[in-house]
Amino acid sequence: MSDKSRKTILTIILIGFLFVLAWLAERCLDEYVMRVVRTGLIYVIAAVGYNLINGIAGQFSLGPNGFMALGGYMVALLMLPLDQKKFVWFLQPLIWPFNAFSFSKPFFPLAVALGGVAGALGALIVGIPSLRLRGDYLAIATFGFSQIIIVLANNLIPITNGALGIKGIPEYADIYRCLGWAIVAVLIISNLANSSYGRAMKSVRDDEVAAEAMGIPVFRIKLLAFVVSGFFAGVAGGLMASLITTVSPNLFSFSMTFNLLIIIVLGGLGSITGSAVTAFAFALISEVLRFVESPMTIGPIHIPGIAGMRMLVFSLLLVLLMIFYRRGLFGKREISWDWVFARFGKITGKGAEAWSHKTERS
Amino acid sequence: MVSQNGAILALDNVSVNFGGLMAVNEFTFTLQKGELAGLIGPNGAGKTTIFNIITGQYEPVRGKVFFKGQDITGWRPDRVACAGIARTFQNIRLFEDLTVLDNVLVSRHSKLKASVLAAALNLPGYINEERVAREKAMELLDRVGLADLANAEAGSLPYGQQRRVEIARALAADPELLLLDEPAAGMNPEETSRLMEFICDVRDKFGLTILLIEHDMKLVMGICERIRVIDYGVSIAEGTPQEIQSDSRVITAYLGEEACEYS
Q1: Closest partner residue to A199 among B78, B109, B153, by Cβ?
Q2: Which of A107, A118, B11, B82 has the fewest beta carbons closer than 10 A?
Q3: Which CATH number is associated with domain A32-290?
Q4: Domains: count for chain B
């Protein structure tokens, strides 16, 4: 059996194992923990997509919350039952065609995919003007565009119902769908990052002038990374809308982008698996850290509950990481089968030579 | 209009200015297929600017650039590269975080036919193309003697080897014309003479036309068949190494004592 097909089979087994794990978790864990797990999986989707543009293609975008909003509203508009739509848009009626139909449950994956398409289209429209900028200027431009999307969400009442948001979205984002989309996101993005297109993105990241001189159409490659990243932001936003069952401009505020930025920097810019692991851990840890926001008494000192203390912990963590471990937990490395073999080989004492110096490829 | 009979590259009265400075002024130059020519001149004479005009980094304000008889003036650099002109840079510009093999493979990206979707889904068509590209890249690295460094990170290599990787990366694009910008900069005499062999070897093996900029007179006089001298953006002399060394304008403008040393 060739090395490649063996890895493919191992990957399939791993995916099957994850689904079994999800099945067990659903039976053994309570609803609250399962919500955290699903949120974690949604973060995985958004984070690996975000890492493609920031880490692999090296273009500092601050826009994912805007594209998540597009996906979230898309799914809300497609999935909300018709009578609920009449109920929600009581100030101004919902515009055609969304007032004429709503998807039933089997079409939920299609709605999420269309949410991704909305995110990708948004990224295309934002990317064409702003990807001509570099570095800080690009960051500011993408930040501005995502703010525009949020402002539009606040004001386009016939579509978004403004600041009141949309309530009563059916909760179809169960553990299997979230896990399925997370696996799709990780597989597609790591395939892409390891492909010739991914190499072109990395070459643009390392040296734009040289990349162009080697025949890389720099602008198109950046746009490709941006649009794919927008697609998965849209997917994540769509799933999140269904998980929370409401969308409002507040849900997709800039702090969403900030969370994702913390995740990809902690995980290592350029490491897809690093982002995936960190995103999941981030969701879990930020729940565990809820206790720091509750009132507590340490000896004679009484501290009242302060909302937002969790972010302080993450910010501290980020500062420490930037001082001591600048490239993030994973750097640019990936958890690949080669890496696993090498670890396993060390234990069994053979196959150590399979450990290649560079583990970029899986 | 410059006569182009059989010329692979022709620059016709090309001018570029940066603000008030005439960096290159009405420069005309032709390069025959298979030639190994040198472009020399004092610092700031406009040599690299000429390279940047040829490769599309700068658009000339006047004049035209022809490659194989086709007008390529104003083309974007990536399009020029795909047409068959590859270059190296004065200050090495490798993709430092990528391996040597990946650096070379980046140059093959423009040859890729598989779509993004095929690459993202790892479809057989793409996998095949990737395998072929890898084989070709390894073969190239083998031919230029870098095969054992294929998996090393490009940025971690010593200077001399980075230069060779840069040339290998340029060769991977299957160019017909190779532009080398100061390939021997920062090399010691021993490295330089090995590089001279390498360049001649590459030209013969790959059937290339080479234009190089160089300050190292030993290298230029040693391997170039024809030399063009520019100063302040203006062409001042052209000829064989012997002719250049005895040209009084060149000696006064640039070569000075060094010319006497080698004549």
Answers
A1: B109
A2: A107
A3: 1.10.3470
A4: 2
Dist CA A147 CA A58 (whole Å): 22
| Whether residue B75 sits in one domain with residue B194 | yes
The number of beta carbons lying within 10 Å of the beta carbon of residue B151 is 13
Regarding whether B113 and B243 lie in a shared domain, the answer is no
pLDDT in tens, A173-183: 899 999 999 99
Best of A124, A195, A224 to mutate (most B CBs within 10 Å, chain B): A195
Residue B189 lies in domain: 1-84+175-263
Rounded to a whole number, what is the distance in Å from the CA of B254 to chain A's nearest CA? 30
Contacts of B112 in chain A (CB under 8 A): 196
Using CA coordinates, name the residue in chain B closest to A356: B151
**ipTM of the complex model:** 0.89
- Is B89 domain-assigned? no
State how far the Cα of A246 lies from the Cα of A250, in Å rounded to an integer: 11
Report how far residue A40's alpha carbon sits from residue A36's, in angstroms, rounded to the nearest whole number. Answer: 6
Q: What distance in Å separates the CA atoms of residue A17 and residue B257, rounded to the nearest whole number?
A: 76
Query: What integer is the mean pLDDT of A266-275?
Result: 90
**pLDDT per position as a tens digit, B156-178:** 998 888 988 999 999 999 999 99
Q: How far is CA A338 from the centre of its chain?
A: 25
Nearest to A44 by CA among A259, A289, A249: A259
Q: A93, A173 in Cβ contact below 8 A?
A: no
CB-nearest partner of A200 from B89, B96, B106: B106
| The pLDDT of residue B205 is above 50 | yes
Q: Taking CB atoms and an 8 Å limit, are A199 and B170 in contact across chains?
A: no
Query: Which of B138, B158, B174 is a domain's end point?
Result: B174
Q: Residues of B at the A interface (Cβ-Cβ below 8 Å)?
A: 55, 57, 76-78, 81-82, 86-87, 89, 93-99, 102-103, 105-110, 112, 114, 116, 119-122, 126, 129-130, 133, 151-153, 169-170, 173
Mean pLDDT highest for which of B22-31, B50-59, B210-219? B50-59
B114 assigned to some structural domain: yes
Query: pLDDT by residue (tens digit) across B86-127?
Result: 999 999 999 999 999 999 999 999 999 999 999 999 899 999
Please give the residue of chain A at the shortest CA–CA distance from B120. A192
Residue B150 forms part of a structural domain: yes
